[in-house]
Amino acid sequence: MSKRAFSFQKVLTLTFLLSLVLLVSACRIMTREEAERIQQSKNAKASLSDAAPAYPASNPKLPVKTTHLTLEGKKSIVLTDARGFVLYYYVPDTLAKPACTGACLTAWPPLIANTDHVSFCHDKLPGEFALHRLAEGKQVTYNGHLLYTYINDRQPGQVTGNNLYQWFAVTTELK
Fold it and tell me: Which residues belong to the signal peptide in this entry (predicted)?
């Protein structure tokens, strides 16, 4: 083999190895606990408490309903949006400085009220609702927690984001 062919082969080998290292470092390997948590949330049993209508009218009562789910082996009453999709809160969020911003809002769309005149009269729920004004609109809060949905929940009552990177389904027990 000539020196030139040997040098070319060496460059190709180094390029391949460097590409492989970059590819492997770009991939994140899920821990067993994360995989089990995701599987548990996919297996959560759901039964909607009542039929979920389309989005609420322009002056709705509260755009929140409830559903009964089993979360981590415990039966819970979970809050949903008007369509029946589970609502979540993010532990690092505060009303003064929401932690879910930018691209996070694509995966976790906020529950936005379309009006200033939302009636927060909900006799089934023990907590307090309010509207919190953000750049994205008037986000609904429950007991001081900003409310979100999760893009991977594909149907009403499905809960795939619970206990995922500090995201939790909102239950009536949330303080």
Answer: none
